[in-house]
Amino acid sequence: MTRLTAVVLCLALHGLSELHAAAAQLDLTNAVVVVSSGVREQAEKVAATILVEEVAKRTGLTLEVRTDAPASGQPAIVITTKSNRPPWFDQTHPVDHQLLPPTQPEGFSIQAVAGNGKQSPAVLIVGTDSRGALFGVGRLLRALNCSASRIAIDSSFAITTAPEYPARGHEMGYRARANSYDAWSPEQYDQYIRDQVIFGMNCVQGIPFEDSRSSRLMKVSRKEMNRTIGAICARYDVDYWVWTPVDFSLTDRNRRQEELAKHEEFYRSTPRLNAVFVPGGDPGSNPPELVLPFMEDLARLLAKHHPEVKIWVSLQDFDEPKVQTVMDYISQEKPDWFGGIVADTSALPINETRRRLPAHYPVRWYPDITHTVECQFPVDWWDPAYAVTLGREPTNPRPDAYATVFRRFAPHTDGFVSYSDGINDDVNKTIWNAMGWDSRQDVREILIQYSRFHFGDDVAEQCADGLLGLENNWRGSLALNTGVDGVLALWQNLETNHPNLLKNWRFQQHLMRACYDAYTRHRLIYETQLELEAMQALAAAANAGAEAAITLAEQILKKADTALCRPQLRIRIDELAESLFESIGYQTSVKRYGASGAERGCVMDFVDRPLNDRWWLEDQFTKIGKLDSEQEKLIQLEVIRTWKAPGPGSFYDDIGHVGQSPHVVRGENTNTDPECRRHANPGHSWIADGRSRRRLAWLHAMQWPVAVDYDGLDPNAVYTVRLTGQGESPLRGDGVRLPVTKGASQVGEFQEFSVPAKLIADGTLRLTWDRVDESHLHWSKHSHVAEVWLLKQ
C-alpha cells in the first residue's frame, strides 16, 4: 500500500467513524435535570446548578430542574447519590450493577440509557457521596456534545470511577505577585474554581498574609477576597488550605504576637478552613526549634475556631540536621494538631520524605507547575531564545512532561496542591487534576476533554493537538524546529474558521503563545544571520580601518530595528496581549498592564529583546573605540570576530545552548530526573531585571555538564582549553586535573588550561568537572561554566 493510499484510507475510515458516532448519539436537547428532594449536602445541591449554567453557556438552552420523576418518554439527566436515590429511581432506571458507584469517597458512575417503550432515555449520575455526584456532573460536562440549541452524548457512554489520590488542588493566592489572580472579581474566582472542580479538583490553597503590597488591579481588598475564596470553597464543597509563611525572625516577640493575632483574626473570619500550611522557608529562615513552637501556638488558636483543622509543615531550606530535628519531634511528641508534611523543593527527595515520616502522617505534594526555568521541573534544555523572551512564567502547557512527573513522584504522596501564580499554567492544572483522579489516563484524551469543554466538540481534537504542539515547540533547537510554524498554522486555522473562539481567554492565550513562538523563531534566524554578517564586516577591519568596520557592523545589527522581521505577526501578538488583559486580567507587561515584576510572566516586555549578542557587541565597540592605538583596536576586533569560530582544528561550545553545544554530553532529563538532582539542566540568570547586556552564553550557563567530548584531534598538536564562567572550575581531562595557565573567576573572563600531550595521543579528549561544595554561598554566587573552547595552537 502506498503512503498516499494509506492516508486516503485513514481519512475514509475517520469519516465513517464520525458518521457512526453521529448515528449513536443520545439527544438530550429537551431533557430535564432530576435531583433528589431534601438534599442536604452542599456538593450535591450545587451539582445541578453547575450543569444547567454550563450547558446554557454553550447551547443557549436552560434545562428545567425538578425533584419528581420525568414524564414518560421525556429525556432526563438524573443526579443522585447511592444513599439518596429517589423512590422511583430503581424502578424506572435500573442501573447496570457493574456500573454502581465504587465505595471510595468522591466516586461516581454515569450511564447513558437509550430508552425504550417502558423506559425514558436518560443519563444517570450516581455518586458514592455528594462530592461524587458533583464530580460526576463534571465528567458529564466533559463528555457532552454541545452546540447551538442542541445537547447530545454518545448513547453508549458509561463509566464508573473513583479518585486515585485524596488531595487534588491548586494554589490561587490573591496577591500582587500573581500574574492574573489579583485582577479578578469574586465572580471570576468563582468561575475558575468551578472550572477546576469540573476536572476533579477538590481543594484550593489561598495566601491570606504573605506579600503585603497592594495591586492597583485589585477590585476588592485582600481581606475581603480571602473570605470570599473560603465562601466559594464552601459553595462547591472543596477544601480550603492556606499557605502562611513566617517571613520574619521568630525571636522578635512583638512581631510574633502580631502574627498570631493576624492568624486568629483570619481563622475567626473565614467561613471555611481545612488545613494551615507553614513552609519551613522561602520566604523565612527560622530554624525548626523556633518554627515548631510557633506552630503549637497556632494550633491552640486554630482549635478555638476550627477544631478539626490540622497544621502542616514543609522542609524547604532545611539542611539535614534541621530535617532530623523535625522528624524527631514528630516521632517523639506525636502532636495531635500535626497534619503532615508538604513535600516541595527541599533537599530531601519526596520518596525519602515519605520513608522517614511516620506512616500514619500523610505527605502532600507541592509541585511547581507554573515555571519553566530555574525551578523544580525545568524544561529540558530550553532554547535560550525562549528563556530571554518568555522568561520563567509564560503560558506553558506541558502535558506530556507533567504526566511523566506525576507518575514518577505521586505514588509517594497522598495527593497534591500545586504552586501557581495565575492562569499561565491552566492546561497543567487540568493535567494534574486528571492524573490525580486516574494516573493511567491518556494525555491526549485529557486534552480532548479540556478542549471539548472549553472550546467545543467540533474543535476538540484540533485544539488538543495544538496544545501538544505548543509543548513540542519547546523541544530542541528553536532554529531547527520547523514544527513551530505548523503549530502556528493550526491555531491560525482555528481562529479563521471559528472566530467565536476569540471571545475565549483560553483560546486567546494559546493562540498568542503560538504566534509568540513563531515570531521568536523567525527573529532568531534573522538576527543570527545579521550577527554573522556583522562579523564578516569586522574581517575587513585591517584594510578598511577599525572605525569603519565597527560602523558597518553596527549598521548591520541595527537592521533588526529598521528592517523588521514578521511585523504582522508582531502586531497580532500585541493585540492578543491586550485582549488577555481585558478578558482575564493577564498581566504580560509591567508598564502597560501593571504586572508586579518583569519576571512574572511579562512576555511583552521582552518580545523584541535581541536574540543575538547585539547589546554586548555594541558595548564592546564603544570600549574598543576608546583604545589608544589602531593596532589595539584591530586585535580586540579579531577576538570578537573569531569568538565562536576559533579556526581550523579548534572547537567552540556554548555549554548551555541546546543548538550550539555539539560536544556537550547531556545527562538525564524529565523522563528519569525531572528535578535535575543527578544531572544539571542549563539555567538562566535573571540579571538587570531581564535586560542584562552580557553575552547570551553567560546567561544560560550550568554547573556542570556531564562532560565535553572531542574526537578527531591531531595527536601531534598542542591544545589549550579556554572557558568562561564564574567561580571555581575544577576541570579534568580524561580524569586528570588540568594545569591552569590563566586564572579567572569572574563572568566574562578567560580561564585557560594546558592539555598534556599524552591525553590526546588517541585523538580524543573528555573534559569533566569535579563537584564543589558551595552550600554556604547564595545560589547566584555558585560556580558554573558558560563557554568552552578547545584551541589548537
Structure in words:
By secondary structure, the chain is α/β, with parallel strands linked by helices. Among the domains are: 20-161, Chitobiase, domain 2 (2-Layer Sandwich); 646-793, Jelly Rolls (Sandwich). The chain contains 24 helices and 27 strands. The strands form five sheets. It has an eight-stranded parallel sheet with strand order 16-15-14-13-12-11-10-17. Helix 5 links the parallel strand 10 and strand 11. Helix 14 (443-455) crosses helix 15. The two termini are 58 Å apart.
What's the SSE blueprint?
Elements: H1 3-23, E1 25-27, E2 32-35, H2 42-59, E3 64-66, E4 76-81, H3 89-92, E5 108-113, E6 122-127, H4 130-143, E7 145-147, E8 150-154, E9 158-161, E10 167-171, H5 186-198, E11 203-206, H6 222-236, E12 239-243, H7 253-269, E13 275-278, H8 288-305, E14 310-314, H9 320-333, E15 338-343, H10 350-356, E16 363-365, H11 384-387, H12 399-409, E17 415-418, H13 426-437, H14 443-455, H15 460-472, H16 483-497, H17 505-538, H18 541-544, H19 546-557, H20 559-562, H21 567-584, H22 590-593, H23 614-625, H24 630-641, E18 651-654, E19 664-665, E20 707-710, E21 719-726, E22 731-733, E23 736-737, E24 740-742, E25 751-754, E26 765-769, E27 784-792
Parallel strand pairs: 2-3, 2-4, 4-6, 10-11, 10-17, 11-12, 12-13, 13-14, 14-15, 15-16
Antiparallel strand pairs: 1-8, 5-6, 5-9, 7-8, 18-27, 19-20, 20-26, 21-25, 21-27, 22-23, 22-26, 24-25
**CATH arch. level architecture of the domain at 646-793:** Sandwich
CATH class membership of the domain at 646-793:
Mainly Beta
How many DSSP-defined strands? Answer: 27
Instruction: Report the β-strand fraction as a percent range.
Output: 15-25%
Largest sheet: 8 strands, parallel
Instruction: Measure the end-to-end span.
Output: 58 Å
